[in-house]
Amino acid sequence: MIRELFTAKVNSITAAALLVAFSSIVSRFLGIFRDRILAGQFGAGDTLDIYYAAFRIPDLIFNLLILGALSAGFVPVFSSLINHKFEFKSNKQAWELASNILNIIAVSLIIIAGLGIIFSPFIIKLITPGFSSEKLNLADSLTRIMFLSPIFLGISAVFGGILQSFKRFFVYSLSPIIYNIGIIIGAIFFTPLWGIYGLAWGVVLGAIMHLLIQIPAVFKLGFKYNLIIDFKNKNILKIARMMLPRTMSLAIVQINLLVITVIASTLESGSLAIFNFANNLQSFPIGIFGVSFAIAAFPAMSAYAFNKDRLISSFSLTVRQILFFIVPSTVLLLTLRAQIIRVILGTGQFDWQDTILTIDTLGFFIISLFAQALAPLLIRVFYVRYNSKTPFYIGLITVAVNLFLSFYFSAKIGIAGLALAFSISNIINFILLWLILHFEIDQLDEIKILFSTIKFSLAAIACGLTVQGMKLIVWPFIDMTRLWGVLTQGLAAGISGILVYIAFCSFLKSEELSYFWDGIKRRLSWKKIATGDQGEARGI
User: Fold this and answer.
1) Is the pLDDT of residue 5 over 60?
2) Environment class of residue 230 by beta-carbon count within 10 Å: exposed (0-12), middle (13-18) or buried (19+)?
3) Are 294 and 488 spatial neighbours (Cβ–Cβ below 8 Å)?
4) How far apart are CA 56 and CA 272, in angstroms?
5) Centroid of chain to Cα 84
6) Segment 495-502 mean pLDDT
């Protein structure tokens, strides 16, 4: 039965989406557990600053060179070559393409990793100008170790693309979970043996495990490896053309992260760690609601790309569904951020001062939660209309704004200023995307979206007041110096707030609440339908 589960073909888009969404949630919870271990062992100080700085360049290489190529190009091209009826026997052209792209990526990454290892001291000094010589040396050593991870993740990403194309989503959805488990193993078992170097080897172990879990399933599909490198192959050229817009968009994100790393390195010790902890927490609802809904809506919007009425209808519904979840998430994160941070990170070396800094930083992140959650959907509308340039140019403006504001606010209020700059630049990004899309399509059903948002906002205000009131009611009866006390207060207040939000939405006759209940009650649809790339939901 277990063997069948690993090799089963998933033809339903609903089932495939559920598998990937479930893996994303599990992976993100493991990420939170990983952060708790790191915070407890090291606190927000030099060690984690070094770790996060060393992680930056290898992660950039993987995201730019591999994720862009495979998510945008490899999966659709490879899928078009597959003979599903005789998938185990007659896929010679598809397997040749897989071997070709596998070899090109492996060789490219080995060369880039080799160059990265050689020039690591220069790169680290460039992105962490505020580090002392001792921190630079340690960051350099960790970066050299972590340069191994993009090689394994790159090869694994090809195998993941193959599994997606054949609709073997179970193993594909397990890989990011295994990746995080590898990092956790490094934090728990390697660091007592090798100190900070154990964190870097944990990342490498996670990348290796990410690859190994997918290999048996790929070979069971009939994959036959060929030693072939052909840059002139028509399918390779097609992938190269398709990957360019995606890579450009990913470059914007990576530049933003580099800017933040550079500035955070000049602030007090632990600033980079605080930023990453707060960013990981605020990314949780964005990944689950913003990215997931954008991915789910992408096929429908692609079909209606130039049918304005149906495109606007699909877009409006998705926006309202995202806001239905993001508005209360914003209020809950804002009112319970102290409890959340103490429960998740408040252990071991992570002291009260670290908690205060993370609370302030997370608070500024939360301001732009709605903008960050809606941006993936807006960008996809441009993509389905064959316009990848506009999001890229707007992204460049966003980076420039973020750069200026980061220098200004970090000088005023420290690491929390980076989160404030990040939020303002993301809100500007959202406004520009929306306005340009509005003028391009004529209208985006703003009136209906506005009325729904007013309902959500009124319900969310009631939710927030309930949370604050329940915190005061529970407080005298528990020990707030203990984990169980903080957790009890947070759960009681949070659950009460959610129930009040749902009750108010019901009273205000929110259509989106009805859609939500209908979705829960409705039986799964097992209609066979092609499934698009789910890479963004994987949580790597």
Assistant:
1) no
2) middle
3) no
4) 11
5) 31
6) 94
Per the CB < 8 A criterion, the answer to whether 125 and 57 are in contact is no
Cβ burial, residue 111 (10 Å; 0-12/13-18/19+): exposed
Structure tokens at 487: 């957790």
**Selected residue with higher pLDDT from 514 and 450:** 450
Spatial distance between the Cα atoms of 21 and 529, rounded to a whole number of angstroms: 18
Q: Nearest 5°: phi and psi at 8?
A: -65, 145
Q: Would you state the structure tokens that stand for residue 202, as one six-digit string? A: 């944990």
Residue 522 half-sphere exposure toward CB, CA atoms < 13 A = 10
Q: Are 455 and 505 in contact (CB under 8 A)?
A: yes
CB atoms within 10 A of CB 159: 25
CA distance 536 to 23: 12
Residue 534 has pLDDT above 50, yes or no: no
Packing angle, helices 197-212 and 149-165, rounded to 10:
20
Q: Is residue 122 packed enough to be buried (19+ CB in 10 Å), middle (13-18) or exposed (0-12)? A: exposed
**Element containing residue 293 per DSSP (H, E):** helix 292-303
Q: What are phi and psi of 32, to 5 degrees?
A: -65, -40
Per-residue tokens: 260: 């933040």
Q: Residue 23 in 3-state DSSP?
A: helix
Count of residues making up the chain: 540
Distance of CA 204 to the CA centre of its chain: 19
Neighbours of 403 (CB within 10 A): 18
151-201 per-position pLDDT tens digit: 999 999 899 888 877 877 778 778 888 999 999 999 999 999 998 899 999
Give the Cα separation of 264 and 274 in Å (integer).
10
DSSP 8-state secondary structure symbol assigned to residue 12 = B
pLDDT (tens digit per residue) in 391-432: 888 988 999 999 999 999 999 999 999 999 999 999 999 999
Query: Of the candidates 230, 225, 231, which has an alpha carbon nearest to the alpha carbon of residue 98?
Result: 225
pTM of the model: 0.83
* Spatial contact of 144 and 125, defined as CB atoms under 8 Å apart: no
